[in-house]
Amino acid sequence: MKSIIVNKLLLLPLLFAGIQPELCGQNLDSLLNEKMGQEETTYPAIFRSATLINSHSVYMLPAGTLDFRVEHRFGTLNQGAYEFWGLDYANIHLSLEYAVTDWLMAGIGRGTYEKTYDGFIRINTFKQASGSDPFPLSIALQSGLYINTLRYLKDFDDYRFAQRLEHVHQVLIARRFFNMISLQIAPSYLRRTPISSVLEQTDLFAMGTGVGVKITSNVSLNIEYFRLLNYKPQLKHRRSAHPLSIGFDLETGGHVFQLIFTNSLAMTEQGIIGGTTGRWLDGDIHFGFNISRVFSIR
Question: Between β-strands 244-252 and 255-262, what pairing exists: parallel, antiparallel or unpaired?
């Protein structure tokens, strides 16, 4: 230990005498690590946005930043020319997501789908890192709560507020390969409060999969898929389908603009996993977009 300290002290005159301009772009610790043959720990940006396409990604905003999101889905392409291939129909979700620290994020939102208010908390437990302190994966835990505010139906005399609630719990596990390909898996659990007069599945497990491919420095191709693991087709209140989405990320300064094709009308996890009814082969494809604008409020 004493020899390392002595070596660093001996390097100081050389650094200040010979490489002054370099200090403008690097701090002293970085230069000393480089001279001593030590690598700095770096953390790759696995995805460009906190939302992969419809559902969330493992990406964490820097502490003290706020992400204002506008998400929009049109009707299905198979509605034909009269409905302008779905563009006459609009489904919107607005949200605010804030990074309390580098490891804790929270968000709130409101969407057209079932007039839902939603909120979530995400905790980043591990970050993929390389260099002096490497780690192979990024892992985050996320829990979301969703409140359906559609008007009460007359037939549901016992429809209590608690039965409007749904919650989703996920483990987000992701890794970036070769600085151009990102993979994410998301084991997910959806819980609905039972309603005696409605025949529907109250506990649903799904495995989410996401792929991001960097095309240029500002453009990425994303694919997102959820496989329903314990779906019971005999419960026909909702004709569930496996959600599949394809999108492009376009990064322009402080904005991330996403163009999307999906069979899911919902833009929050409870609707994606439990409420997707469209099928790609039937033309039940929604075109849409997401706009993300990040502000520093510290």
Answer: antiparallel
pLDDT, tens digit, for every residue of 242-292?
A: 999 999 999 887 688 999 999 999 999 999 998 898 999 999 999 999 999
**Residue 205 CA from chain centroid, whole number:** 18
CA atoms of 68 and 293, how far apart (whole Å): 5
Residues 83 and 16 in one domain: no
What tens digit of pLDDT does each residue of 87-112 get?
999 899 999 999 999 999 999 999 99
Domain that holds residue 191: 65-296
Kindly report, residue by residue over 24-57, the tens digit of the pLDDT.
Answer: 444 555 554 555 556 677 778 889 889 999 999 9
| Cα-to-chain-centroid distance, residue 65 | 16
Is residue 16 domain-shared with residue 103, that is, in the same domain? no
The model carries a pTM of 0.81
Closest residue by Cα to residue 40 from 27, 24, 59, 25: 27
The token duo for 38 is 């030590």
* 27 and 142 inside one domain: no
CA dist 251 and 219 (Å) reads: 6
DSSP 18: H
Residues 282 and 183 in one domain: yes
What is the C-alpha to C-alpha distance for residues 102 and 43, in angstroms, rounded to an integer?
12
